[in-house]
Amino acid sequence: EGSRLVRPRTAGQTRYLQALRENELVFCVGPAGTGKTYLAVAMAVSALRRGSIKKIVLVRPAVEAGEHLGFLPGDLEAKINPYLRPLLDALHDLMDYDQIRRYMGSDLIEIAPLAYMRGRTLNDAVIILDEGQNTTVPQMKMFLTRMGQNARIVVTGDVTQVDLPLATVSGLADAVERLRDVPGVGIVSLDKSDIVRHPLVQAIVNAYEGTEPVKEVGVGPEIAEPDHPPPTGATASE
After folding, report:
1. Measured in whole angstroms, how far is the alpha carbon of residue 48 from the centre of its chain?
2. What is the pLDDT of residues 32-51, one digit of tens each?
3. Helices 171-178 and 137-144: crossing angle, nearest 10°?
4. For the structural domain made of 11-208, what CATH number should be given?
5. Which of 35, 44, 3 is nearest to 16 (CA)?
6. Dihedral of alpha carbons 24, 45, 69, 32, sign
7. Strands of 185-189's sheet, edge to edge?
8. How many Cβ atoms are within 10 Å of 112's Cβ, its own excluded?
9. What's the confidence (pLDDT) of residue 9?
């Protein structure tokens, strides 16, 4: 019902899917457009449909709102929606809208900001943390220790796109180094060759890679100043 067959389109994506099958905790690091979140959500939806898990939990750090969201108007759903929209987009591409509503209404799929994970233990679930580079080290530790029985965690992110305050260590970069040799942990790095969005996305990533920001941009030909000032009483437009 509303299902879509998902296959890897690059060698990197093949390695990623293999890591998802073989490990209980997977970190996937790479640029935009490489399918990091999409493939994780596809794996989770497949596991839910097979009955091997009872719940999907999709999580994102709301960095722009300081993880509190209190100053935003409206109810919780309205507040968190802008930050969680990319996760909903992946779901909508994999499932019918009515099916998503039923699953969310039955609490089979939950989408929440990272702050709402504190104090919970998640059993029989796939838990996906998107934009993991925007967690602090304590936040990442808090999130990873939510894992209960028959649970799998996937953390995705791009360590070149950190929105944390200057000098704050990214929880994703830290965790990848700390947990690199831990059994049951898979770490996959994707690169620009794995980008599967519009071809322009790869060109854009290439253009920004390893270059300094342009500080001054010419907007067109300069207007030459006249050699002699206009006669007294005349204007430049005359």
Report:
1. 21
2. 889 999 999 999 999 999 99
3. 60
4. 3.40.50.300
5. 35
6. positive
7. 109-113, 55-60, 125-129, 152-157, 25-29, 185-189
8. 17
9. 87
Bridge-based pairing state of the strands 109-113 and 125-129: unpaired
CA distance 169 to 166: 9
Q: Residue 189 forms beta bridges with which residues?
A: 29
In this prediction, residue 229 has a pLDDT band, given cuts at 50, 70 and 90, of low
Q: With 50 as the cut, is the pLDDT of residue 236 above it?
A: no
The C-alpha angle 183, 21, 1, rounded to 5 degrees, equals 150
Amino acid at 149: Q
- Is residue 115 helix, strand or coil? helix
Average pLDDT (189-204) is 85
The alpha helices in 147-228, defined as continuous H runs, are: 171-178, 199-208
The reported pLDDT for the residue numbered 230 is 54
Between 39 and 196, the higher pLDDT residue: 39
Nearest one of 134, 142, 90, 137 to 116, comparing CA atoms: 142
pLDDT number for residue 116: 86
Which structure tokens are listed for 213?
């920001």
Break the chain into its structural domains and give their ranges: 11-208
pTM of the entire predicted model = 0.79
Cα-trace Rg, the chain: 23
How many CB atoms sit inside 10 A of residue 56's CB?
24
Beta-ladder partners of 29: 157, 189
